[in-house]
Amino acid sequence: MFTTTLSKPGMTGFPQDLFAAIQELKRDLNAVILAHYYQDPDIQDVADYIGDSLGLSRQAAKTDADVIVFAGVHFMAETAKILNPGKLVLLPDLAAGCSLADSCPPDQFAAFKAAHPGHLVISYINCTAEIKALSDIICTSSNAVRIVQQVPPEQPIIFAPDRNLGKYVIEQTGRDMVLWQGSCIVHETFSEKKMVQLKMEHPEAEAIAHPECEPAVLRHASYIGSTTALLNYVQQSQSSAFIVATEPGILHQMQKAAPGKHFIPAPPLNNCACNECPHMRLNTLEKLYLCMKNRAPEITLPEATRVEALRPIQRMLEMSV
Ligand code: 13P
Ligand code: SF4
To answer: Which of 22, 126, 152, 233 is deepest in the core (most CB within 10 A)?
Structure first.
């Protein structure tokens, strides 16, 4: 089941078999390991649950483990803590942030909200607890369209922080929403020109994309969805090859789920590795082991913020059953 079982040669102070050591710590701590699809394959292979942001929130909401080890980025682990104030929530590297969350500072967003009185605030889960506390409903890439569709048509909406997901939701629902102009550095790196080139080189391949990509890239995709939706789609589709416009960490599960099919990661603008999320990639199997061994770093947040941030998350969970 595991792709790698040994710690890297030359790494001192780590057990020879990191996977076995992590499993042992998991039993000792009564911990659950939740991982996002953008994590390194080794981390995905050691996780109890791998999912998209909505799936991970649902797992965090229902777990009976004492400790949640979150292999993802800060806002995801913070969401788990908001849902589980009494549990220890660990993040292998506290510096694993998110450019999208960073693109929406709470003071500026509070002023933006005040400038649009009477608006319902729907925020993408990729934001800080402070932004969640300023929001009415949280959504993820898998339920954003469904949530906006449930809002009465006469109700004006602010959608934050991702302008690309916001534009996609406007297109799908026909709703006119006020958009916060945030974006993801990873998904904005995909180039329309390179996408078209790749489609010409692989005419048999179907292009699929995450809605955080820019509209010019989404235009070339025959299917658009969250990471879980993309993973389900490649298994159901008749196509044998796919050009995948999202973080390439997802390819690990795609290859496992559909081993006979061919997956081509969409190319970034330059010949860089900037289609890999630098925040997600800060987590390593070694740091995962260390955070469980040390019971740190842990996620903490002020109780007043947590209570305010919980309300729109619960609303999302109720609206997306
Ligand atoms: P999903 O997990 O909803 O697919 O979103 C991807 C993402 O960018 C997470 O940061
Ligand atoms: Fe944030 Fe983009 Fe990384 Fe997702 S891929 S965690 S949105 S920077």
So the answer is: 126
Same domain, 167 and 200: no
Q: How many domains are there within the chain? A: 3
Residue nearest to atom 7 of ligand 2 (CA): 184
Ligand 1 pocket test: which of 70, 125, 140, 208 has the largest number of ligand atoms within 8 Å of its C-beta?
A: 140
Cα angle at 52 between 292 and 177, to 5 degrees? Answer: 130
| 185 CB near ligand 2 (under 6 Å) | yes
Q: Give the relative orientation of helices 53-62 and 303-319 as an angle to the nearest 10 degrees.
A: 110
The 10s digit of each residue's pLDDT in 125-152 is 999 999 999 999 999 999 999 999 999 9
Nearest CA to ligand 2 atom 1: 98
Q: Mean pLDDT score of the chain, rounded to an integer?
A: 95
Contact 59, 34 (CB under 8 A): yes
State the CATH number of the domain containing residue 136: 3.40.50.10800
Q: How far apart are CA 175 and CA 191, in angstroms?
A: 27
Q: What are φ and ψ of residue 110, in 5° steps?
A: -60, -40
Residue 40: which domain range?
A: 18-98+279-300
Pocket of ligand 1 (CB under 6 A): 52-53, 126, 140-142, 184, 212, 226-227
Indicate the pTM of the whole model: 0.94
